[in-house]
Write a structure and sequence with these properties.
This protein is an alpha/beta fold and about 650 residues long. Helix content is about 35%, strand content about 15%. The protein has 16 helices and 19 strands. The strands form four sheets. It has a seven-stranded mixed sheet with strand order 9-15-14-13-12-10-11, with helices on both faces. A five-stranded mixed sheet has the order 4-1-6-5-7. A hairpin with a 2-residue loop joins strand 18 and strand 19. The protein starts with a strand and ends with a helix. The chain binds pyridoxal-5'-phosphate.
Length: about 650
């Protein structure tokens, strides 16, 4: 009789590994505490070859499972849960494949005279939605995986075997070896070396096979949670089991942002150098809250942000050797919050009262502006969403008039948040004119260029910078379009004093000579949290591994592909553009109206080959196509257009 094993198992007295894909002639496991999920479909296939003993075993296992599940329904009932199975009981199984093996739970009181140190299942997994079965397996799935979104998902059935925990580990044959003593919970750097290689391989394999996954996760709410045990593991699990669950649990529930078919929202592009930079960041594990807590973290960040001033052609007043400087935030939302806090600080220091302070942003600005204003304590009634013009940029006349009305009411214009590249349509507010108004009003100007900012790596794509020298602060996200994985936002200040005044608090335990010398930057005072990750490393890796020219190529190619797509849209009578073409975003709709556009988008996304998102512009439902993924090429844009062409109805 053969038993094919393709997983790792844990045993009560420690851990055991069964080599992947190993086939053992007999599973005479003299080890204990094993919980084995056996694929019943496989069992059924093999049933005809089962001998009488194996059939008895199967019946016993099924009985055991039902009792265990009954226990889950009535957890207080400590009745006889599982029959005692001797390891050799499994020997007679026909060719069955263990699909999932996991140790779960602690000792319980067993019937049948069993010793109390037997381990028993305390949770179970029934995973992998396959066919539409119902009825008979209902009583099986009384556990956590049973109810999802009000509906009972159909799961493949499993049976569970439980083996004694105190058996001795001898004579196990070549496929089984103990890898951890019960007393040893240390995971060593050597373990990291070994597992690290496999993990990097896993990531590389994933990136290589991106196109084989449906871009948008198709899981139903609760489905992934149902695959996880209810309780955390009591004993260490083998790394192989953890890695295996990436394929089994994580990938099915992942929307593949790195897929070349991802055209939704704005991208969050990762790249191999950035991934490796993150790895080193995790390995160093520093908290760069102040210069003294890790000088390299602070100084590399300062230099990277200065490099970017040069690479993007930003105003020199954003450089660190001026009164200003740059700092990495987790997101554009945090950058906007910091800008609002600095603006508030400056206004209050100038004698204004918080309740009088007004904030202005366009009706097309990102919602993070309103959120930031709320967090910073501005009165919601003083936050004005200014109307936009036909190109969705802020209407200057409307801004001027709002400021005038506030002034006349004795209020104080405190901050304007302008957008260079709005989320819905990549519209640009008139930064120069807004900046001049802010100067006249002594109001702070923050420019949010979360997405579009990266484009400035190409000198020909810098028109958005017109007037930027008038800005008090500016932010963009390398994590959107500069090959640096999430999270990485660069916030620049023309004068850092107001932000530091707003956020610096120095308790005794943070005092140090370096900070007191005034010779160093302490970035903890430039952000809301105290602790900070070494994010500059990934930026450093990216800038060095691609070089400015590599980054320019990346951006230029996406802009070229976007113009190409836009040409196809314009030439097709079924569609119309909904916003002026800009950088890497194309906004279009079906001339048949909102319902047709919405249906088309749903059908496109349902193919699993692409994902696009939508917005509303001038009241219309609009399909957005943003080309910015690391791996997106002409071929993928051609594939997208083929799908659009095929699925869109005639006008
Ligand atoms: C213009 C703009 N600002 C801010 C944000 C928020 O970005 P984050 O997720 O970095 O906070 C976005 C997100 O897409 C954006 O498009």
């Amino acid at each position: 009789m053969a038993l094919a094993i393709n997983e790792v198992i844990r045993i009560g007295g420690g851990l055991a590994v069964i080599d992947h894909a190993a086939v053992v002639e007999t599973l005479a496991l003299p080890v204990g505490g094993i919980v084995v999920h056996i694929d019943v479909e496989m069992m059924a296939a093999a049933k005809s070859r089962l001998d009488a003993a194996a059939r008895r075993l199967l019946r016993t296992l099924l009985g055991a499972l039902r009792k265990v599940l009954d226990q889950r329904v009535r957890p207080r009932e400590e009745e006889s849960l599982v029959p005692v199975l001797r390891p050799t009981d499994l020997v007679r199984g026909a060719s069955v494949r263990t699909e999932h093996l996991q140790y779960l739970g602690g000792p319980v009181r067993l019937g049948n005279g069993a010793a109390p140190d037997y381990k028993v299942i305390s949770d179970f997994h029934i995973h992998r939605r396959t066919s539409s079965r119902s009825g008979s397996h209902r009583s099986w799935s009384g556990g956590r995986g049973s109810s999802v979104g009000g509906e009972r998902p159909e799961f493949r059935e499993s049976v569970v075997a439980i083996l004694p925990s105190r058996a001795t580990a001898t004579g196990t044959g070549p496929m089984i070896r103990a890898v951890t003593e019960p007393s040893s919970f240390l995971v060593t750097p050597e373990d990291l070396r070994r597992h690290g290689r496999r993990t990097v391989d896993w990531v590389a394999d994933y990136l290589t096979s991106l196109e084989s996954y449906p871009v948008l996760a198709t899981t139903v709410p609760g489905e992934i949670a149902a695959m996880l045990p209810r309780s955390p593991p009591e004993l260490p699990e083998p790394f192989e089991a953890v890695l295996a669950d990436l394929d089994r649990i994580v990938l099915p529930g992942t929307t593949h942002w790195q897929s070349p078919g991802f055209f939704g929202f704005f991208p969050a592009n990762a790249s191999p150098p950035a991934i490796l930079g993150e790895l080193v960041t995790a390995g160093l594990g520093v908290n760069g809250m102040g210069w003294a807590t890790s000088p390299a973290c602070t100084e590399i960040e300062t230099v990277m942000l200065d490099w970017l001033v040069e690479l993007l052609g930003l105003p020199a007043r954003f450089r660190s050797e001026s009164r200003g400087g740059g700092v990495i935030q987790d997101s554009a939302s945090s950058a906007t919050l910091c800008a609002l806090l600095a603006a508030r600080e400056r206004a209050i220091n100038a004698g204004a009262v918080l309740t009088d302070l007004c904030v202005y942003t366009s009706a097309e600005a990102h919602s993070s502006v309103q959120k930031g204003a709320r967090v910073a304590g501005f009165s919601p009634a003083r936050v004005h969403l200014i109307a936009v013009d036909e190109a969705f940029g802020m209407d200057l006349a409307a801004l001027e008039s709002a400021v005038q009305v506030d002034r006349e009411a004795g209020l104080v214009p405190c901050c304007v948040v302008a957008t260079a590249g709005t989320t819905s349509s990549m519209a640009f507010d008139p930064v120069r004119a807004i900046g001049e108004l802010c100067r006249a009003e002594q109001a702070w100007l923050h420019v949010d260029a979360a997405m579009a900012g990266s484009a400035a790596i190409c000198p020909e794509l810098r028109s958005q910078h017109d007037g930027l020298e008038l800005a008090d602060s500016y932010a963009f996200n390398p994590h959107k379009w500069l090959l640096t994985n999430f999270d990485c936002d660069c916030l620049y200040l023309a004068d850092r004093a107001s932000l530091i005044d707003a956020l610096s608090i120095t308790p005794e335990y943070l005092r140090n000579d370096a900070s007191e010398s005034g010779l160093v930057l302490d970035y903890r005072d430039w952000q809301v949290p105290l602790g900070r990750r070494f994010r500059a490393l990934k930026l450093w890796f990216v800038l060095r591994c691609y070089g400015a020219e590599g980054l320019r190529r990346h951006v230029r190619e996406h802009v070229r592909l976007s113009r190409h797509l836009e040409g196809l849209v314009v030439a097709d009578p079924r569609f119309e553009l909904c916003a002026p073409p800009a950088l890497n975003l194309t906004c279009f709709r079906h001339v048949g109206g909102d319902d047709v556009s919405e249906r088309l988008l749903a059908e496109l996304n349902a193919t699993g080959r692409v994902f696009l998102s939508h917005t509303r512009l001038a009241g219309h439902y609009v399909i957005r196509c943003c080309i910015g993924g690391t791996w997106t090429t002409e071929r993928h844009v051609a594939m997208l257009w083929e799908l659009i062409d095929e699925l869109a109805p005639a006008p």
